[in-house]
Structures are given as C-alpha cells and as structure tokens.
Amino acid sequence: MNREHPTLLHRAFCGQHHSLNSGPVFGVHYNESCGAPPAITNKGNEKYYYGYFENRFGEQWVFVYDFSRKVGELRGGDIGWDKVIEVRDGKHELILGKAEATWLLACWTAATGVG
Fold it and tell me: For residue 8, what is the DSSP state?
C-alpha cells in the first residue's frame, strides 16, 4: 500500500456516517476479533464506486474503487477489517471463494467497464 495515499476508505469516509433519510441501507454485523468494520457512506463521494458482499456463511467484504486513481481496495472481516488489499487491473493477492470472486469481478466490471 502506498503510504503517500491514505486508504480510500479513510479518505472517503473519515469514520463519519451521513444519512439521506432514516439511516444506512445495511449494517455490518461483525466479530470483535476481526476489528471494527469501516464506516462507509456514498453521500458526497461520487468519485468512488462502492460494493458490499455477504456470503451464506455471513462473511462480509467491502470494495471501493477510486475513479481518479483507477485502483480499488478490498476489505473483509475474514482478513481483519483494517487490512487493505489493493485491486489493480482487476487483480489482487487473495485467494477468494467462487462467490466472492464472482462478486468482486462484478464490482470491477461495474466500476471500470472492463470484465
């Protein structure tokens, strides 16, 4: 991770939650051993694409793509919410299950138009 660029989640969200009406569309339940999940809102952050995934076992992932930098970040409870996996050109260092890999490819394609 390039230290010159704070994580996308940090820059985009700064730990604050903004609501359009009654609150978040979904909430993240989590195990404390994974750390606290990032606070995320897309209000006022149109330069990012956001993706959320939860599989049938309750394992959760968040993907944020920065349109200006053409790079994405992936975080998940299984790896610890504070660990950031960079996604560049659709590639990353994790071995994901089929459902997670399919979701991440869909996010990448939606954000970049490249699949």
Answer: H
Q: Are 58 and 47 in contact (CB under 8 A)?
A: no
CB 65 within 8 A of CB 75: no
Mean pLDDT of 101-114: 95
Ordered DSSP codes for 26-90 = ------GGG-PPPP---TT-TTEEEEEEE-TT--EEEEEEETTTTEEEEEEGGG-TT--EEEBTT
Model pLDDT for residues 84-107, shown as the tens digit of each residue: 999 999 999 999 999 999 999 999
The answer to whether residues 76 and 48 touch, using CB atoms and an 8 Å cutoff, is: no
- pLDDT for 40: 62
In Å, how far from its chain's centre is CA 110?
14
